Amino acid sequence: RGLGSSKLSIPSMSETSQTGFFISFEGSEGCGKSTQIRQLVASLSAAGLEPVLVREPGGTPVGESIRQLLQHSDEGRSLTPEAELLLFAASRAQLVREVIQPALLAGRIVISDRFLDSTTVYQGVARKIPAGCVESINRFAAGDRLPDVTFLLDMDSTEAMNRLRGREAAARPDRMEEEPLAFYEAVRRGYLACAAREPGRIRVLDATLPAEEIADAIRQTLASHAIYPRNSA
Ligand code: TMP
What we know:
5-stranded parallel sheet; alpha/beta; 5 strands; globular; binds thymidine-5'-phosphate
């Protein structure tokens, strides 16, 4: 079940209706998130499920402009942590209402490349904005519907940075990617703390394993949520 069905038998994380299925991916830079998302989209599409893929910040015209400001503009370099938090939240508020909620209400599977845990961790833990402020802004922006499952790709921060620096030979680093190692260590700690608080939602995956093994673990988890038939997992 789960394919076109409008209700899933998973525990509800929200007070609103639980149609569709909402998956988010989290992890620090260099953890292999994009590879896993690509593989999952391919595998769900092959099973006839046509997921809706979005990214944060971004995913809407407004959100993509905010992404440009946050990550690639010269003006973005003068952002205060508070303004940065509100811009990530603004992008999310737009994405949730313009794309995610309508897709879920239509019974679709939505995959988000990052969601509110990124704000909890990057702005809350790494930029040290008080957790209570981040939580209430997150709640305001995201509304009631949290991801049904979040895959956290976890690996040692030094190794993740080395992977990233390798890639940077080809691409100019964005503003966040210029942060020092200590920032990414805080990000990792923050993510693991989120997973410890919400073990039912956040599944931690060892990002140093071969990509195919990680993809298998993801498919198995989704099969256990009846997202697609076990024989295609
Ligand atoms: P990415 O999409 O290439 O991973 O880049 C997004 C960057 O923005 C990444 O450095 C994480 C950061 N970020 C935050 O700091 N807070 C947020 O709420 C989100 C969604 C992303």
